[in-house]
Amino acid sequence: MLFRSGLVRVQVHRQTGGLLSVRRPGDRGNRISQQLALRTTRAAPATGSAWESPEDRAVYTRMVAETIERAAGQAGPVIESRGRLLGADETECGRFVQRVSIVEGLPLAVLEFDVTLAVATTGPWFEQYAACRFAWNENEDVELCRSLHTQAVVTERTRFTAPHFVLLKQVDAARAGTWPDPTEVAILTGGLAWHLRSTPHMLDSLLIAGGGQKATRRMAIGVGLERPWDAALGFLAGEPGLTRRSGGHPHVRITVGECTAADGGGVKARVGVLDATGRGGDVRIEWQADVRSAVACDLHGRPRDDVAVALDGRAIVVSLRRFEWLMLSVEFGP
Predict the structure, then answer these.
(1) Which of 27, 39, 194, 219 could cross-link to 23 by cystine, CB 3.0-4.6 Å?
(2) What pTM value is reported for the model?
């Protein structure tokens, strides 16, 4: 079953009820797939046997849809899947309801889950849990970024926290410097804190763990989002569409610290320029007031002589390293 807009195309798998594919119009291949599953872990081998990691001993249920139909949701039409989570012996381990919708004006699909397990989870969090599982092409070289204080930071961790979003960035020199990257996939985690990279091309976002049996959760998937951190914050607030914006350097965030009166009138401000996605490069910041001076400084306001800052009319031009948060002392004149 298919959902499409001018910005995103989402297909629901008829047998599982999960997402078969998410892509933008014109994409030649799928960007990401999704299913729900309960993971358990076989007991560790006996002492003296060959060691096996918990991931090598992981066992996952199958997602089996009983009904898939279009329905009316609170914010518009949805595709609703209902079904069971089955073990290898066809035992029913849980039931689910999954709803998929598209946000108008954004390349973003919203997922809503109601999951009920037959038996409450037991044991270590990362060895028995219900999860929303995401998979991408195993032949693609993907760099995984996690949200840290809403900034996208590359991580090689297997287990990590990302309460706002996870980004899947294809490592491709031909697209270096392209923004927004139409191949970049943003998973808005909706406050779900813990995630496990169970294989090099699969990610488990934990829905239920630590003795839980029922959960209602929301997540979203975007392809080529311009400002994923804004969409993530809007999604947590209940309306990702409120964050639409464009222009300037969409990978750069501006922070403003202490503001004081400057000598001779005007205002002196501590301004932070943050590369939020690891793109790096030159940045030009236009202001609505005349800029008297701008110098790089440290967190205590002391000038730095190792960073060049140029003025061009009402604009400040600086160069950022990947993920750098550069502090500036700026004076604005009347």
Answers:
(1) 27
(2) 0.77
